[in-house]
Amino acid sequence: MTRASRSLSILIFVVLTGVIAPFVIWGAHFDAALSFEGARKWMESYGSWAWAAGIVLLIADIVLPVPSTVVMSALGWMYGWWVGGLICAVGSMLSGILAYASCRWLGRGAARWIAGEEGLRRGEEIFEMRGGWLVALSRWMPVLPEAVACFAGLSNMRWRVFLPALACGSVPTGFAFAAIGHVGKSEPGWAIALSCIVPVLLWLGAVRLLRR
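Structure (tokenized):
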């Protein structure tokens, strides 16, 4: 392993520790408080602003162990698969953009101190080659969405690549879990399978457009 790879590994460990630590400390409490029924009741307590409360929960997932897929399912139950899916997609997009932007503009100094110039350069090479796939596919995985968006920002991944990749992952995932909530969780298998497959197909199309 080269020095740059070792430095990058240290940075990855630090970021993942920061993302995972809240789940270890408060995860059980949030899972209990934000069960499907708990999340729905909490959002409904805001009346006509319930959709905004749902978006806030999805954004809070950056720093808190919010069960985002449960929140998305609850939004689908409340608003239906179409409107609920739009709300979920917007919330997931905003969460990714905020994590990316904050790390790109505020975290580069700390990342350089941890990994050094060589480590950061190695991270930039990885995200230049595979960043789109990492961002798109991470959106349907637990914990990884926030971590990958942060790494994309720290690695100076280009906005014009990051945003389409983020949309390719966030949109199908949002609609899939909203559909799960809408149908009362009767057919979750199809929705989850589609949320895995569609990001790949969308990103293949986005790659061709970006190359043009």
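The longest helix spans residues 68-106. The radius of gyration is 17 Å.
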